[in-house]
């Protein structure tokens, strides 16, 4: 399957991610308060600049990110890649402390429309493909995303969404969808 550029197909995941960043739940009831709740994530925040990992709140799978001088490497473990009739969408966002700027790395496997692999534009919901394909050869999902522009990131937020059969679920590293601390490379 090749990379595809699409907008509407990733809209649901993008909306879920934006809502998650606001501290709300897209898929159920939730509450908002003026003060953000503490994250319930089991995570290794970036004590080492440019590296972080966390276990997904569903109890199934984990995600790690590593920054190099020219790219981000994202690895998902314990999650499915192909599930007939279902779209699996894996996103990792990095954003600024003021939450006025973020970048989104996307890997999507869709049994109908193929694979999307690249940077998700938050304004147009279009995917700008990155070279190659995500690597699934070792039972994990690994994507390498060449940096498009520098961002002074202070948080990261991974999400896994599964859509199909009239059902949609989104899983974060924290029960409440809160972002996790990030320390970029110096």
Structure description:
- It is a single chain.
- With 186 residues, this protein is mostly beta strands.
- The chain is built from 1 helix and 12 strands; from the N terminus they run H-E-E-E-E-E-E-E-E-E-E-E-E.
- It has one helix spanning 11-21, and strands spanning 42-44, 51-55, 62-67, 71-77, 87-95, 102-110, 114-120, 127-129, 140-146, 155-164, 167-172, 180-181.
- The strands form 2 sheets. Strands 5, 6, 7, 8, 10, 11 and 12 form a 7-stranded antiparallel β-sheet that branches.
- Residues 1-41 have low confidence and may be disordered.
DSSP E strands, number: 12
Percent in strands = 35-45%
Indicate the overall shape.
globular
Please tally the helical runs, counting DSSP H or I stretches of 4 or more residues: 1
Could you say which structural class the secondary elements and strand pairing correspond to?
mainly beta
What is the CA-atom radius of gyration, in angstroms?
Answer: 15 Å
- Regarding quaternary structure, what we see is single chain
* N- and C-termini, Cα separation: 37 Å
Helical coverage, percent range: under 10%
């Amino acid at each position: 399957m090749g990379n595809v550029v699409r907008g509407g197909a990733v809209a649901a995941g993008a909306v879920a991610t934006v809502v998650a960043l606001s501290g709300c739940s897209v898929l159920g009831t939730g509450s908002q308060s003026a003060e953000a709740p503490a994250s319930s994530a089991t995570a290794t925040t970036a004590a080492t600049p440019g590296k972080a990992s966390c276990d997904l709140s569903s109890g199934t799978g984990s995600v790690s990110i590593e920054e190099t001088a020219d790219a981000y490497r994202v690895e998902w473990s314990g999650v499915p890649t192909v599930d007939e009739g279902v779209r699996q969408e894996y996103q990792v966002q990095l954003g600024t402390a003021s939450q006025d700027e973020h970048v989104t790395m996307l890997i999507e496997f869709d049994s109908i429309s193929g694979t999307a692999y690249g940077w998700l534009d938050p304004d147009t919901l279009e995917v700008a493909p990155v070279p190659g394909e995500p690597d699934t050869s070792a039972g994990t999902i690994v994507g390498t995303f060449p940096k498009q522009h520098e961002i002074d990131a202070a948080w990261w937020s991974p999400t896994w969404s599964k859509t199909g059969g009239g059902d949609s679920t989104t899983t974060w590293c924290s029960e409440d969808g809160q972002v996790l601390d990030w320390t970029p490379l110096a």
